[in-house]
Amino acid sequence: MDTLTLCGWSAFQWHRIPPLVRMLHLSGIEEGASALPDDPSLPLLGGIDRPLHVLAADDAHRPRAAGIKPLVHSLLPPKTSLIPICDGLFVTNVAYTALTLARSLSTARLALAISELLGSFAVFKPPFELQIVLDQIAAGNVSEFGDLSGDLLFESLRGWQQARNLKGQPTDLWQRPALTSLEQLRQFAYDLPHRTRGAQRLKDALAIAVEAAASPLEVEAALLLGLPRRKGGEGLGAATCNKMITLSPEAKRIAGKSVCYADLFFTAPRKQTRARALDIECQSVAWHDGTEKTLDDNARATALQCMGLNVMFLTKRQLEDDELAAEIAREARSRLKVNAPEPGAALLEQRAKLRREVIVDWKTFGMG
Asked: What are the CB-based long-range contacts (under 8 Å, 24+) for 28-32?
């Protein structure tokens, strides 16, 4: 088969795969996991679903193989923007992945994808057999994997860590370093040739994307609460995710640490000089579950409150419930002293539309 370059949703899924998982597949540790792009029966590298989205320069160069969905794009990336996977198979870098996603996703859903690339999390569900291997490695049982030890194991992890729930079971959420920055993506979009397909949608998505989020819940909440009401949001203004706050001496004693990180930090409008800033703590099951973590969250909230900040808590269930989410938004606006009349039919329709776009299954929202 000719050389293939993954793009769009397939490339996005590749960027979601932990480096350790890529290495396990490519080294053949897991049976049947080799990267064979012409095998339509298996997900590629254990995490890229079929059909594979691949780049094509024009109709004459469209791959015709089964399980392949070609994307004809006038702006093919330079070789420096391609990442080799194995012989004959490449993937677009983060910036070109975002650009090619713009061809198939709405602005809001493109903002979700970009926010994951900008954040400190990834959504990836390993196949069952691979999860067994990952559990063994997490438990320190690496002797049976030959050279997978010491420096090689450290390099293969690259800061990725699978989140576990209260029972210690692995989840689909991984913590990892951000893959790019908002500044880098904005510069990339600015440098694109005039009328490049997808460029305007990419710029629109970058205007609302969330940087430094640590979970899907933080991204959804930041968009739904922060966007202007005319765009379907609740009008709280842009949130700063995981803002570092240096604690006062009294707050240090309460929290047992010198700094805290606010999940979603909203500032009051400038004209509201008496309003206090608001921290909304997102209670994600994977990252905020368990007694120890709950106590830590409570101590942090108390410490921030003693410094004069408003603190509210938000769960996924509350955000997904239309009435509960509206109540939380009203309370947040009240604390920030953001004036907002009751929405009319047009605003309610915009709100419902945005919620349909943003509250998604993160494993599949870009498939197609």
From this structure: 29/133, 29/145, 29/148, 30/129, 30/130, 30/133, 31/129
Enclosing domain of residue 32: 4-92+120-177
The residue type at 100: T
How far is Cα 122 from Cα 93, in angstroms, rounded to an integer? 16
Find tokens 């996991």 and name the residue: 33
Domain identity same for 221 and 350: yes
Cα–Cα distances in Å, from 161 out to 156, 166, 216, 234, 354?
A: 11, 16, 16, 33, 31
> What tens digit of pLDDT does each residue of 157-209 get?
889 999 988 888 999 999 999 999 999 999 999 999 999 999 999 999 999 99
Do 27 and 71 lie in a common domain? Answer: yes
**Interatomic CA distance for residues 96 and 114, integer angstroms:** 11
Same domain, 254 and 349: yes
Which tokens in the block code for residue 321?
């419930």
185 belongs to a structural domain: no
Confidence of residue 337 (pLDDT cuts 50, 70, 90): very high
Contact 115, 227 (CB under 8 A): no
Q: Which two tokens stand for residue 309?
A: 């900040």
| Claim to verify: residue 13 and residue 139 sit in the same structural domain | yes
Does residue 351 lie in a domain region? yes
Helices and strands: H and E segment counts in the chain? 15, 12
Alpha carbons 198 and 27: distance in angstroms, whole number: 36
Please give the Cα distance from 109 to 102 (Å, whole number).
9
Query: What pTM does this model have?
Result: 0.93
Condensed to tens digits (0 to 9), the pLDDT of residues 8-55 reads: 999 999 999 999 998 888 765 343 334 444 555 567 888 899 999 999
Counting every residue written for the chain, the total comes to: 368
**Integer angstrom CA distances of residue 322 from 220, 230, 240, 325, 327:** 13, 18, 24, 5, 9
Taking residues 78-103, report their average pLDDT.
Answer: 95
Q: What percent of the chain has pLDDT over 70?
A: 88
